Amino acid sequence: MKDKNVQSVVLIDYFLPKNFYTYELCCELSKFADVTLICKDSYEKKSNELFNIKPVLHSKPDRNKVKAFKKYLSDLIKIKKIVEEIKPDVLHVEGIIHHECEVPFYKILKKHVNVFCFTVHNILPHEAKKSDEKKLISICSLADMLVVHNESSKRLLLDHIGDQKKDNVFVIPHGCYTSYHIKHMETGEPVKFLMFGLLRKYKGIDILLNAIALLPKEVTKRCHFVIAGNQQKNYDDTDYIAMRNRLNIDEKIVKFDIRFIPDDTLENYFNEADCIIFPYREIYASGALLMAYSFEKPVIASNIPVFYEETCMGKSGLLFEAGSPQQLANAIESFVKLDKQKLKDYQANVKQLKDEKYSWEQSAKITAMAYRKVEEKYNEIQ
Asked: Given 26, 81, 139, 156, which residue has the most CB atoms within 10 angstroms?
Protein backbone atom coordinates (compact mmCIF):
# COMPACT_ATOMS: atom_id res chain seq x y z
CA MET A 1 0.00 0.00 0.00
CA LYS A 2 1.45 3.36 -1.03
CA ASP A 3 2.14 5.86 1.77
CA LYS A 4 0.20 9.00 0.80
CA ASN A 5 2.66 11.19 2.72
CA VAL A 6 5.61 10.00 0.62
CA GLN A 7 5.70 10.98 -3.03
CA SER A 8 6.36 8.18 -5.49
CA VAL A 9 8.66 9.16 -8.36
CA VAL A 10 9.60 7.32 -11.54
CA LEU A 11 12.68 8.64 -13.39
CA ILE A 12 13.63 7.59 -16.91
CA ASP A 13 17.29 7.78 -17.90
CA TYR A 14 18.86 6.57 -21.18
CA PHE A 15 22.42 7.53 -20.16
CA LEU A 16 23.20 5.23 -17.21
CA PRO A 17 25.71 3.52 -16.88
CA LYS A 18 27.78 5.89 -19.08
CA ASN A 19 26.66 8.91 -17.07
CA PHE A 20 25.81 8.69 -13.38
CA TYR A 21 23.97 12.03 -13.07
CA THR A 22 20.51 10.52 -12.53
CA TYR A 23 21.83 7.69 -10.37
CA GLU A 24 23.57 10.15 -8.02
CA LEU A 25 20.41 12.25 -7.86
CA CYS A 26 18.27 9.18 -7.07
CA CYS A 27 20.56 8.09 -4.22
CA GLU A 28 19.81 11.34 -2.36
CA LEU A 29 16.25 11.74 -3.66
CA SER A 30 15.35 8.37 -2.13
CA LYS A 31 15.63 10.06 1.30
CA PHE A 32 12.63 12.23 0.39
CA ALA A 33 10.57 10.05 -1.97
CA ASP A 34 9.83 6.49 -3.08
CA VAL A 35 12.07 6.37 -6.16
CA THR A 36 12.08 4.02 -9.16
CA LEU A 37 14.71 4.48 -11.89
CA ILE A 38 14.17 3.00 -15.37
CA CYS A 39 17.48 2.65 -17.24
CA LYS A 40 19.39 0.57 -19.77
CA ASP A 41 19.88 -3.16 -19.29
CA SER A 42 23.67 -2.74 -19.33
CA TYR A 43 23.49 -1.33 -15.81
CA GLU A 44 24.50 -3.94 -13.22
CA LYS A 45 22.37 -3.70 -10.09
CA LYS A 46 24.15 -3.52 -6.72
CA SER A 47 23.05 -5.32 -3.57
CA ASN A 48 22.89 -2.12 -1.51
CA GLU A 49 20.78 0.13 -3.78
CA LEU A 50 18.76 2.69 -1.85
CA PHE A 51 15.97 2.79 -4.43
CA ASN A 52 14.26 0.57 -6.99
CA ILE A 53 16.11 0.19 -10.29
CA LYS A 54 14.59 -1.37 -13.38
CA PRO A 55 17.34 -1.88 -16.01
CA VAL A 56 15.01 -2.88 -18.84
CA LEU A 57 15.83 -0.56 -21.76
CA HIS A 58 17.87 -1.92 -24.65
CA SER A 59 21.53 -0.95 -24.52
CA LYS A 60 22.98 -2.78 -27.53
CA PRO A 61 22.77 -0.68 -30.71
CA ASP A 62 21.42 -2.31 -33.87
CA ARG A 63 22.69 -1.25 -37.30
CA ASN A 64 19.48 -2.45 -38.88
CA LYS A 65 17.20 0.61 -38.65
CA VAL A 66 13.99 -1.41 -38.62
CA LYS A 67 15.22 -3.68 -35.81
CA ALA A 68 16.57 -0.69 -33.89
CA PHE A 69 13.20 1.07 -34.10
CA LYS A 70 11.38 -2.08 -32.98
CA LYS A 71 13.65 -2.22 -29.91
CA TYR A 72 12.92 1.43 -29.23
CA LEU A 73 9.16 0.86 -29.43
CA SER A 74 9.44 -2.16 -27.13
CA ASP A 75 11.26 0.10 -24.63
CA LEU A 76 8.36 2.55 -24.70
CA ILE A 77 5.95 -0.33 -24.02
CA LYS A 78 8.09 -1.39 -21.02
CA ILE A 79 8.06 2.17 -19.68
CA LYS A 80 4.27 2.36 -20.11
CA LYS A 81 3.73 -0.89 -18.21
CA ILE A 82 5.92 0.20 -15.29
CA VAL A 83 4.27 3.62 -15.03
CA GLU A 84 0.78 2.13 -15.21
CA GLU A 85 1.70 -0.40 -12.54
CA ILE A 86 3.29 2.09 -10.10
CA LYS A 87 0.99 5.06 -10.84
CA PRO A 88 3.60 7.48 -9.49
CA ASP A 89 2.90 11.00 -8.30
CA VAL A 90 5.78 12.24 -10.47
CA LEU A 91 7.16 11.03 -13.80
CA HIS A 92 10.57 12.62 -14.39
CA VAL A 93 12.21 12.23 -17.81
CA GLU A 94 15.92 13.02 -18.19
CA GLY A 95 16.15 12.95 -21.97
CA ILE A 96 14.32 12.38 -25.25
CA ILE A 97 15.46 10.18 -28.13
CA HIS A 98 12.72 10.71 -30.74
CA HIS A 99 10.52 13.75 -30.08
CA GLU A 100 8.00 12.72 -32.75
CA CYS A 101 7.23 9.51 -30.84
CA GLU A 102 7.85 10.48 -27.24
CA VAL A 103 5.89 13.72 -26.99
CA PRO A 104 2.58 11.99 -27.85
CA PHE A 105 3.70 8.95 -25.79
CA TYR A 106 4.25 11.05 -22.66
CA LYS A 107 1.04 12.92 -23.32
CA ILE A 108 -0.73 9.57 -22.85
CA LEU A 109 1.34 8.66 -19.77
CA LYS A 110 0.51 12.00 -18.13
CA LYS A 111 -2.96 10.60 -17.42
CA HIS A 112 -1.38 8.20 -14.90
CA VAL A 113 0.63 10.82 -12.93
CA ASN A 114 0.09 14.12 -11.16
CA VAL A 115 3.34 15.77 -12.31
CA PHE A 116 5.26 15.30 -15.55
CA CYS A 117 8.80 16.69 -15.18
CA PHE A 118 11.46 17.13 -17.85
CA THR A 119 15.12 18.10 -17.31
CA VAL A 120 16.45 20.45 -20.00
CA HIS A 121 20.16 19.64 -19.82
CA ASN A 122 20.88 21.58 -23.03
CA ILE A 123 18.46 24.26 -24.19
CA LEU A 124 19.28 23.45 -27.83
CA PRO A 125 21.98 21.40 -29.57
CA HIS A 126 25.08 23.50 -30.23
CA GLU A 127 24.60 22.87 -33.96
CA ALA A 128 20.86 23.66 -33.72
CA LYS A 129 18.42 23.61 -36.65
CA LYS A 130 15.08 25.43 -36.82
CA SER A 131 13.29 22.15 -36.09
CA ASP A 132 15.17 21.82 -32.78
CA GLU A 133 13.37 24.82 -31.30
CA LYS A 134 10.00 23.30 -32.26
CA LYS A 135 11.03 20.07 -30.52
CA LEU A 136 12.05 22.00 -27.42
CA ILE A 137 8.75 23.89 -27.32
CA SER A 138 6.72 20.69 -27.81
CA ILE A 139 8.21 18.82 -24.84
CA CYS A 140 8.30 21.91 -22.61
CA SER A 141 4.65 22.71 -23.38
CA LEU A 142 3.74 19.20 -22.23
CA ALA A 143 5.71 19.36 -18.97
CA ASP A 144 4.21 20.48 -15.65
CA MET A 145 7.70 21.04 -14.28
CA LEU A 146 10.97 21.89 -16.03
CA VAL A 147 14.46 21.59 -14.55
CA VAL A 148 17.52 23.57 -15.65
CA HIS A 149 20.89 23.77 -13.92
CA ASN A 150 21.49 27.53 -13.68
CA GLU A 151 19.76 30.91 -13.88
CA SER A 152 21.35 31.67 -17.24
CA SER A 153 19.77 28.56 -18.77
CA LYS A 154 16.40 29.49 -17.26
CA ARG A 155 16.50 32.90 -18.95
CA LEU A 156 17.46 31.33 -22.30
CA LEU A 157 14.78 28.66 -22.00
CA LEU A 158 12.07 31.23 -21.30
CA ASP A 159 13.25 33.23 -24.32
CA HIS A 160 12.32 30.18 -26.43
CA ILE A 161 9.16 28.92 -24.73
CA GLY A 162 7.69 32.13 -23.31
CA ASP A 163 7.18 33.52 -19.80
CA GLN A 164 3.90 31.70 -19.23
CA LYS A 165 5.96 28.74 -17.92
CA LYS A 166 8.28 30.76 -15.67
CA ASP A 167 6.73 29.50 -12.41
CA ASN A 168 7.21 25.92 -13.57
CA VAL A 169 10.93 26.24 -14.37
CA PHE A 170 13.17 25.29 -11.43
CA VAL A 171 16.90 25.94 -11.17
CA ILE A 172 18.45 22.82 -9.63
CA PRO A 173 22.26 22.68 -9.65
CA HIS A 174 24.03 19.70 -11.21
CA GLY A 175 25.76 17.89 -8.34
CA CYS A 176 29.44 16.97 -8.24
CA TYR A 177 30.41 13.42 -9.13
CA THR A 178 31.16 11.17 -6.14
CA SER A 179 32.37 7.95 -7.77
CA TYR A 180 35.95 9.09 -8.50
CA HIS A 181 39.01 8.70 -6.28
CA ILE A 182 40.56 12.04 -5.37
CA LYS A 183 44.27 12.40 -4.63
CA HIS A 184 45.48 15.72 -3.28
CA MET A 185 48.82 16.61 -4.86
CA GLU A 186 51.17 19.49 -4.20
CA THR A 187 51.39 22.11 -6.92
CA GLY A 188 54.87 22.35 -8.37
CA GLU A 189 56.46 23.02 -11.74
CA PRO A 190 55.63 22.67 -14.47
CA VAL A 191 52.15 23.91 -13.62
CA LYS A 192 49.76 21.35 -15.14
CA PHE A 193 46.70 22.58 -17.04
CA LEU A 194 43.94 20.29 -18.32
CA MET A 195 41.19 20.81 -20.89
CA PHE A 196 38.87 17.83 -20.87
CA GLY A 197 35.80 16.70 -22.84
CA LEU A 198 34.53 16.14 -26.37
CA LEU A 199 36.42 18.30 -28.87
CA ARG A 200 33.89 20.72 -30.37
CA LYS A 201 34.30 24.15 -31.97
CA TYR A 202 32.21 25.95 -29.36
CA LYS A 203 34.67 24.83 -26.67
CA GLY A 204 37.42 27.08 -28.03
CA ILE A 205 40.38 24.70 -28.35
CA ASP A 206 41.70 27.09 -31.02
CA ILE A 207 41.44 29.96 -28.53
CA LEU A 208 43.53 27.98 -26.02
CA LEU A 209 46.20 27.09 -28.59
CA ASN A 210 46.48 30.70 -29.76
CA ALA A 211 46.72 31.81 -26.12
CA ILE A 212 49.58 29.37 -25.46
CA ALA A 213 51.39 30.72 -28.53
CA LEU A 214 51.14 34.23 -27.00
CA LEU A 215 52.69 33.29 -23.65
CA PRO A 216 56.11 34.75 -22.85
CA LYS A 217 58.81 32.08 -23.23
CA GLU A 218 59.71 32.17 -19.55
CA VAL A 219 56.04 31.41 -18.69
CA THR A 220 55.66 28.69 -21.35
CA LYS A 221 58.64 26.82 -19.86
CA ARG A 222 56.77 26.65 -16.54
CA CYS A 223 53.60 25.11 -18.08
CA HIS A 224 52.32 21.80 -19.33
CA PHE A 225 48.94 21.41 -21.05
CA VAL A 226 46.86 18.29 -21.70
CA ILE A 227 43.90 18.45 -24.10
CA ALA A 228 41.99 15.19 -23.72
CA GLY A 229 38.72 13.90 -25.14
CA ASN A 230 37.09 12.25 -28.11
CA GLN A 231 36.55 14.04 -31.42
CA GLN A 232 33.53 13.38 -33.60
CA LYS A 233 34.50 14.53 -37.07
CA ASN A 234 30.89 15.15 -38.12
CA TYR A 235 30.70 17.89 -35.45
CA ASP A 236 34.28 19.20 -35.57
CA ASP A 237 36.81 18.10 -38.18
CA THR A 238 39.50 20.62 -37.18
CA ASP A 239 43.01 19.18 -37.10
CA TYR A 240 44.11 20.61 -33.75
CA ILE A 241 47.48 18.85 -33.78
CA ALA A 242 48.26 20.51 -37.11
CA MET A 243 47.11 23.83 -35.60
CA ARG A 244 49.49 23.32 -32.67
CA ASN A 245 52.34 22.67 -35.10
CA ARG A 246 51.50 25.72 -37.24
CA LEU A 247 51.68 27.85 -34.09
CA ASN A 248 55.15 26.43 -33.35
CA ILE A 249 54.05 25.04 -29.98
CA ASP A 250 56.28 22.28 -28.69
CA GLU A 251 54.48 18.93 -28.34
CA LYS A 252 56.23 18.59 -24.97
CA ILE A 253 54.29 21.67 -23.83
CA VAL A 254 50.89 20.65 -25.25
CA LYS A 255 49.90 16.99 -25.24
CA PHE A 256 46.80 15.80 -27.13
CA ASP A 257 44.97 12.63 -26.13
CA ILE A 258 42.18 12.43 -28.70
CA ARG A 259 40.06 9.37 -27.91
CA PHE A 260 37.39 8.16 -25.52
CA ILE A 261 39.04 8.61 -22.12
CA PRO A 262 38.47 5.65 -19.73
CA ASP A 263 37.69 6.40 -16.09
CA ASP A 264 41.10 5.44 -14.71
CA THR A 265 42.86 7.79 -17.16
CA LEU A 266 40.29 10.50 -16.43
CA GLU A 267 41.06 10.21 -12.71
CA ASN A 268 44.80 10.47 -13.36
CA TYR A 269 44.41 13.56 -15.57
CA PHE A 270 42.22 15.42 -13.06
CA ASN A 271 44.25 14.39 -10.01
CA GLU A 272 47.52 15.46 -11.64
CA ALA A 273 46.16 18.78 -12.94
CA ASP A 274 46.65 22.03 -11.03
CA CYS A 275 44.00 23.90 -13.00
CA ILE A 276 41.22 23.03 -15.46
CA ILE A 277 40.72 25.35 -18.46
CA PHE A 278 37.39 26.25 -20.11
CA PRO A 279 37.91 28.61 -23.08
CA TYR A 280 34.32 28.05 -24.30
CA ARG A 281 32.57 30.41 -26.67
CA GLU A 282 29.14 29.33 -25.35
CA ILE A 283 27.54 26.68 -23.13
CA TYR A 284 24.20 26.04 -21.40
CA ALA A 285 25.60 23.90 -18.59
CA SER A 286 28.94 22.16 -18.18
CA GLY A 287 29.38 18.69 -16.74
CA ALA A 288 33.13 19.17 -17.19
CA LEU A 289 33.08 22.18 -14.83
CA LEU A 290 31.36 20.03 -12.21
CA MET A 291 33.99 17.35 -12.86
CA ALA A 292 36.67 19.93 -12.04
CA TYR A 293 34.84 20.79 -8.81
CA SER A 294 34.49 17.07 -8.03
CA PHE A 295 38.30 16.84 -7.98
CA GLU A 296 38.46 20.17 -6.09
CA LYS A 297 40.42 21.92 -8.84
CA PRO A 298 40.44 25.68 -9.50
CA VAL A 299 39.57 26.77 -13.01
CA ILE A 300 40.30 29.30 -15.71
CA ALA A 301 37.09 29.99 -17.63
CA SER A 302 35.69 32.43 -20.16
CA ASN A 303 33.30 35.00 -18.71
CA ILE A 304 30.20 33.72 -20.53
CA PRO A 305 27.06 33.93 -18.33
CA VAL A 306 27.02 30.26 -17.24
CA PHE A 307 30.64 30.29 -16.05
CA TYR A 308 30.25 33.71 -14.44
CA GLU A 309 27.36 32.26 -12.43
CA GLU A 310 28.77 28.80 -11.70
CA THR A 311 32.18 30.12 -10.59
CA CYS A 312 30.35 32.58 -8.30
CA MET A 313 31.84 35.51 -10.20
CA GLY A 314 35.32 33.99 -10.29
CA LYS A 315 35.62 32.72 -6.71
CA SER A 316 36.68 29.29 -7.97
CA GLY A 317 39.35 30.60 -10.33
CA LEU A 318 40.16 33.17 -12.99
CA LEU A 319 37.75 34.51 -15.60
CA PHE A 320 38.82 36.03 -18.93
CA GLU A 321 37.11 37.82 -21.80
CA ALA A 322 35.40 35.15 -23.92
CA GLY A 323 36.96 34.69 -27.37
CA SER A 324 40.19 36.53 -26.52
CA PRO A 325 43.42 34.46 -26.76
CA GLN A 326 45.40 37.38 -25.26
CA GLN A 327 43.12 37.60 -22.22
CA LEU A 328 43.36 33.84 -21.75
CA ALA A 329 47.17 34.04 -22.03
CA ASN A 330 47.12 36.72 -19.33
CA ALA A 331 44.97 34.49 -17.09
CA ILE A 332 47.31 31.51 -17.57
CA GLU A 333 50.32 33.68 -16.73
CA SER A 334 48.53 35.01 -13.64
CA PHE A 335 47.75 31.47 -12.47
CA VAL A 336 51.36 30.36 -12.97
CA LYS A 337 52.51 33.29 -10.84
CA LEU A 338 49.89 32.85 -8.07
CA ASP A 339 51.22 32.93 -4.53
CA LYS A 340 50.46 29.87 -2.39
CA GLN A 341 47.86 31.60 -0.24
CA LYS A 342 45.81 32.78 -3.24
CA LEU A 343 45.91 29.26 -4.69
CA LYS A 344 44.73 27.83 -1.36
CA ASP A 345 41.90 30.38 -1.33
CA TYR A 346 40.71 29.21 -4.76
CA GLN A 347 40.94 25.57 -3.68
CA ALA A 348 38.98 26.30 -0.49
CA ASN A 349 36.29 28.12 -2.49
CA VAL A 350 35.97 25.16 -4.88
CA LYS A 351 35.59 22.74 -1.97
CA GLN A 352 32.91 24.94 -0.42
CA LEU A 353 30.98 25.01 -3.70
CA LYS A 354 31.32 21.24 -3.98
CA ASP A 355 30.12 20.60 -0.42
CA GLU A 356 27.26 23.10 -0.45
CA LYS A 357 25.76 24.42 -3.70
CA TYR A 358 26.82 21.48 -5.87
CA SER A 359 26.16 18.62 -3.45
CA TRP A 360 23.67 15.93 -4.47
CA GLU A 361 21.98 16.30 -1.09
CA GLN A 362 21.20 19.93 -1.91
CA SER A 363 20.07 19.10 -5.47
CA ALA A 364 17.80 16.31 -4.23
CA LYS A 365 16.32 18.52 -1.52
CA ILE A 366 15.44 21.26 -4.04
CA THR A 367 14.07 18.65 -6.48
CA ALA A 368 11.81 17.08 -3.83
CA MET A 369 10.52 20.51 -2.77
CA ALA A 370 9.80 21.40 -6.40
CA TYR A 371 7.91 18.13 -6.96
CA ARG A 372 5.81 18.88 -3.88
CA LYS A 373 5.12 22.48 -4.92
CA VAL A 374 3.97 21.51 -8.42
CA GLU A 375 1.84 18.61 -7.13
CA GLU A 376 0.12 20.91 -4.62
CA LYS A 377 -0.83 23.18 -7.55
CA TYR A 378 -2.19 20.11 -9.36
CA ASN A 379 -4.27 19.11 -6.32
CA GLU A 380 -5.71 22.63 -6.02
CA ILE A 381 -6.95 22.43 -9.61
CA GLN A 382 -8.56 18.99 -9.16
From this structure: 26
